[in-house]
Amino acid sequence: MLLKQLRTANCVLRTIACSVFLAPVALSAQEASGPALTAEQQVAVAVLPLPADLRAGATVLGYDASGKLTPLRKGTGEMTCLAPNRTISRFHVACYHNSLEPFMARGRALRSSGVNGDAVDSARFSEVKTGKLAVPKGPASLYSLTGEWTTLDAAALTANGARRLFVVYIPFATAQTTGLSDKPTRGTPWLMGAGTPKAHIMFVPEM
After folding, report:
1. Within 10 A of 59 (CB to CB), how many other CB atoms are there?
2. pTM of this structure
3. Element (H, E) at 124
């Protein structure tokens, strides 16, 4: 059971990396994931991971007709949400605290320039160390939903069956500073990326 949970968590994290950090490519004429969503649909679906009281104020980034990531709504709250990217194989939406945007945006820019894999974090970590790239000074949350495209009902604006993931970033946190294990454990929060600028508490709810 633990192994299955860890594989699921890793799959969700890979999807987050693709949709939150990765710069999108142009949409093809016909997408296996279905027709493109309108701007209004993208906004409504993008905020689904958030608690209801945070949705109305969230800033939303989505995709124009060419597949370019672009602002769809300027919010007044503390969260930024990304609409689902039709160019990736799975449905995924994520919302994160505004203080994470420089780190997220830098990841997208690096990948757009051809930097991939571990080199993305190496570049960002180096920039954080020199003070060029800002990271949150305190805890910063991320909420996401991930699943097959069939979980998305564009008409009803729901994603029933998509898997939830909650993350709280605490840059440079360690097991010693938080009292959390840095080893993956079923049924309890744990610390991933301990000691790095992207250290974060993982919460993987049961289905």
Report:
1. 21
2. 0.84
3. helix 118-130
CB 46 within 8 A of CB 37: no
Cβ-contact 62, 157 below 8 angstroms: no
- DSSP letter string, 26-66: PPPSS-TT-SPPPHHHHHHHHTTTS-HHHHTT-EEEEE-TT
Q: Please choose, from the candidates 14, 11, 73, the residue with its C-alpha nearest in 3D space to the C-alpha of residue 38.
A: 73
pLDDT at residue number 205:
76
Residues forming beta bridges with residue 65, ordered by sequence position:
none
Q: Which residues on neighbouring strands pair with residue 85, listed in sequence order?
A: none
First to last CA, the chain: 12
Phi, psi of 167 (to 5 degrees): -135, 140
- Residue written as tokens 């602002």? 71
Residue 83: the pLDDT is: 97
Q: What is the mean pLDDT of each run of 10 residues along the chain (207 residues)?
A: 46 47 41 78 97 98 94 97 93 97 96 95 98 97 97 94 95 97 90 97 78
Let me know how many helices (H) and strands (E) the chain has, helices first: 6, 8
Paired tokens of 13: 């994290």
Query: What's the one-letter identity of residue 84?
Result: P
Domain-wise residue ranges, the chain: 2-203
Residue 12 and residue 160: Cα distance in Å, rounded? 16
Q: Crossing angle of helices 118-130/101-112, nearest 10°?
A: 130
* CA distance linking residue 22 with residue 19, whole number of Å: 6
